[in-house]
Give the backbone structure.
Amino acid sequence: MKRKEKHNMKLIDSMVLTDVDDESDLGIIINALNGKICVISGEEKQFIRKWTNLEEITPEGDGEKALLKELHESGFLVQNKKEEEHIVSHILSICREDHKRIAESRGGVVFVVTYMCNFAFPYCYENAVAYCNNKILSEEMVDKIFELHHNSIPQIALYGGEPFLPETRKIIEYIISKAPGSVYSATTNGYYLPDYVDLLKKIKVNNIMITLDGTREIHNKTRVLGNGMGTYDQVIKGIEICLSNLIPVKIRMNISEMNMKDCLELREEFIGQYKEEYETGILSFELQPVFQLSPEKKDKIKEKIYYNGIRNQEAPFKYNVITHSVSPILKAFVNNSKKAFKPRYCNCDAESKRLFYDPEGDIYSCILSLKNKTATVGKYFPQHYMKEESILTRNIETVEVCKKCKLKFLCGGGCAYEIMDDKGNVKNPNCTSILNEINNELPQLYKKLILR
């Protein structure tokens, strides 16, 4: 009797198997350590399931040997648990140091100039918090922010409410006077933008993000002034005057089922009209589903506005800047794993480096948490202190459940703000997004982009 060939190898525990669908019987395996993704047949799925939890794999035929070879080349095999533990420890060490370096640098600061806004639109996430005042950052507050950053802030973002109002011009001029050499960006509704172009021409601008939710008819249904009047023509004027002065513009489109077709067509019109500006990066786009949508509706919209752009464009970043923040496994898949996988130590910048200073003297790290006092990460005015535990201190090593989770490098613990309780606790995992990506988005993407 011929002896079976033995290989002193086992499957990594940090592997995920998901089905494409019942009809095709195909499966997808994900290596949560290096981001490798492989599509396997129904028969190979059975091999994987048979080998799971085995301490030593013994292939029994040519099919199993071929799969084992592929798995070995893609890093799905280790000699034993200790080898995998060593790999995990090494990745954690690199992530930890990288996270520390990023957190300590904090070269960028967001000045929340005011919470006032001249617009009244229904999907604004800031309206979710019952909070309204007419405060504007004071010069003393600005001085304190610069003092905390050793009077050197290389990157400055202006935010609100609406930062570009007639009432805020004086304080924005003051900020610029303190850091004339910094690189600036701003998020604005664009209404008063023409009145600020003279200032913007004097400084280095990375981009001005202006929201446009479709053509005139669609845009004027949601992006309205407090008195209900439409704003489309004035916003277009702001976009045009910036582009004519070579001030980089990022057009933000908040997408729902109602305006998706309209926005996608409008984007093509802009690219056609401003071809040179688009090709040189002066014009770019940020398309994102409206946050109030259900997960199912968001998934359908994402397929149209995220992944098609990555596949069909030579420069997907300009076509939709959101493609840079797609999760590691989805980015690896839609880019055919051409780019290096970067494991997540935390979910996003809100847990590492981002700081928002608001006109109340509070510090936040998550853009969605603004005005929610429970979510502050500290205070800067009149006195400065940072909370010992907050969104800013959350990562896969401070959330106990994440420490042992095989998906930790794929999700970074999930969004902290979504699971924050009324006491500000964020030390629980948020698995909703990663499980949806693995079990729903990834299989759907495979069917849409590969099988179609």
About this structure: The first strand starts at residue 10 and ends at 11. The chain has 17 helices and 15 strands. The longest helix spans residues 81-105. Confidence is low (pLDDT under 50) at residues 1-6, 125-130.
